Amino acid sequence: MAKADNKYIITYRNFLGKLEKENIPDIILLSLKEKILLDDIVKAICGKFIGKDFDPVNNLISFNADDKQTENVLNECSNTGLFSDKKVVILKNVKKFSKDDKQSYTDYFKRPNPDTVFIMVSAAEEFSPGKVFSYDSKLENENSAEVKKIVESSVKIFEIGGFTEDELINWIKEKFGDYKISSDTIAGMVQYSNHSFDEIMSEIEKLKTYCFLSKEVTMEAVNLCNGIAKDFKETDFIRAVIERDNEKALMIYEKISLKKDVEVFLVFLLNAAFVIINKLYDPGVSKFQGWQLKRELKLWPDEQEQLLPYYRKFRNSLDYGKMKFIFENIYQSDKLLKSSGRDKRSIMTSLINNICGS
Question: What is each CA distance from 156 to 109, 117, 331, in whole angstroms?
Fold first, then answer.
């Protein structure tokens, strides 16, 4: 991301606060990758601009920039009349406007419809308003200064920054509403979602249904919802394998209740662990520290983070070329476990012994 664009960065929480306290801008250029967060933001804008009882069918119109419907977008934005309702028009997947589209949109920016909020959304990895409107390009500079002036004076530009660990936990707590859940339980829950907001929301809805009567979400509930035995700590199993302790790994496995497909989940955990170890061979990753490393390796629960020294020790003791052997064993074991009529215990025993003997 270019340093010149850092002035547009704002946290998700601060942006929602800004929407609540200030008038909604007529035109917004928003950099945001997560659909779940965009839905929350659009809901907040519609509620403030139109009213809490807004009708998404009539008051919220969405377009995709890839469909090249500039004329339809601007007609929707400009539609005025005595009985016209307020509306929010969204143009998603904005990348770089063509010369003609740029001219059409900047013409609208000069005279926007006060009964419409027009939101352009970019999910680009390197966000830059100059790239979207081509006023930072040396090849298109005949009116770049004028375009830049129009955009910066008419369009409110925001880039929603990534969540910190605390922000993510607070966001999840809000999504649970009146359910009681601790920060430690949230950290444990996140490991099942691969830090995907879509998967996090799916996990939240599943847990809210499971804990509907008690209105309290515990780590036991999280584990049970994911098919794990009550007394099982997955980190104990992973650590035993990483330390090449065959007997301990098998003992932990034997203690697991006979739940459906628990072996498949253990193989999933092993695969996740060796994906982390594999990443540690990358100098660009191994140099990270703190939250940046934790996010890159997806070490969400504290127990997972405590395994990091063991992951590093295993990496240092194993030639990188042997990682292929381990992943092939994990893949074949997963495939066999998902086949009917297989002896799951012998498959798991073979997998544990192969990894511990590598």
Answer: 11, 11, 49
The architecture in CATH of the region 165-225 reads Orthogonal Bundle (1.10)
Q: Which class in CATH covers the domain with range 3-160?
A: alpha beta
| Residue pair 5/127 in contact by the 8 Å Cβ criterion | yes
Cα-Cα-Cα-Cα torsion 42, 160, 217, 191, nearest 10 degrees, comes to: 130
Angstrom distances, CA of residue 316 to CA of 55, 230, 319, 331: 59, 34, 8, 23
**Amino acid letter for position 106:** T
Using a CB cutoff of 8 Å and minimum separation of 24, what contacts does 273-279 make?
273/238, 273/241, 273/242, 273/307, 273/311, 274/323, 274/326, 274/327, 274/330, 276/311, 277/242, 277/311, 277/314, 277/315, 277/323, 278/323, 278/327
For 234-356, CATH number out of 1.20.272.10, 3.40.50.300, 3.40.50.970, 3.30.413.10 equals: 1.20.272.10
The tokens describing 12, both together, are 């998700």
Per-residue confidence in pLDDT tens, the chain, 358 aa: 344 457 899 999 999 999 999 999 999 999 998 999 999 999 999 999 998 888 888 889 999 999 989 999 999 999 865 456 899 999 999 999 998 999 999 999 999 999 999 999 999 888 889 889 888 655 555 678 889 999 999 999 999 988 888 889 999 999 999 999 999 999 888 877 767 888 899 889 888 888 888 899 998 788 777 655 445 567 778 888 898 888 778 877 776 544 455 788 888 888 888 888 888 888 878 777 777 777 777 776 667 778 888 888 888 888 888 888 999 999 999 888 877 677 888 898 899 999 988 8
Domains 165-225 and 234-356 share a fold: no
CA 132 to chain centre: 24
Instruction: Map out the domains of the chain as residue ranges.
Output: 3-160, 165-225, 234-356
Which among 151, 150, 153, 78 is positioned nearest to 116, based on CA atoms? Answer: 78
